Amino acid sequence: MAKKKHQEEEIKTAEQLELKEMKSNVISFLNPKSIVAESFRALRTNLEFSMAQDNKKVILFTSSHVSEGKSSCAANLAVIYALQGKRTLLIDADLRRGVQHKNFGLDANNGLSNYLSNVGLDLNTLFKPTAVDNLFVITCGVVPPNPAELLSSDRLKKLLDDFKPCYDIIIIDGAPVLPVTDSVIISHLADKVVIVTSYGETHKDELKQVKASLDNAGADIAGVILNKVDTMGSGYGKYGKYSKYKKYNSYYEYYSSDNNK
Q1: Over the stretch 148-174, which tens digit does the pLDDT of each residue have?
Q2: CATH number of the domain at 2-253, please?
Q3: In sequence order, which residues have a C-beta less than 8 Å from that of residue 243 and are 6 or more positions away?
Q4: CA nearest to 3, candidates 164, 120, 156, 151
């Protein structure tokens, strides 16, 4: 019954929600013609090719450490899918430092941690509409004392199994791998895992550790995003008016153990 109600609910439009609450790093929506948005369209295309078989639709974003841009990348890719007309769900599974409610101007309460710890939570309050048509967010919820234990439960798998038919794509914003085990724990629930790195900040050895941890968990690593690359002035002159967003430029590269990317 809850799934039926969710499928039939009316999507709130941008006119019904306050766009001013959306953070400026959701550039794919606020500036859809920017080089940043084009980069995420390229990412979407690459992922669509790699997920074409077997109706794969769940993508997990993670990183080595905090502040490498995984949450911004997850949010922008979710927007790109939604603008394409895909019914999209963004789940904030970083139960320790979740930010997707801030990115989209939403209330963090009644989020994923509440669902995982509360069997009686009303599912109709869990899926929050955004200012972007076709895009819904499950926020992180209140910070729990035991994030890893909550994510280890069967309830997250049940949530994904129950609501996969309702969405064309599901993007999970996970925690960084090296400080905590949360993303490694849930990586087997994703069809593809994308690792976000920060140009000039992420160390090669750390990236190898992240890959090894995910490989050991049986994760299917789609590739690596090299984030925060300043590409202004290198063949992208027509995008110059968006130069204030240049630190968010992101490019998608497949991870290869042969070249140590």
Answers
A1: 999 999 999 999 999 999 999 999 999
A2: 3.40.50.300
A3: 232
A4: 164
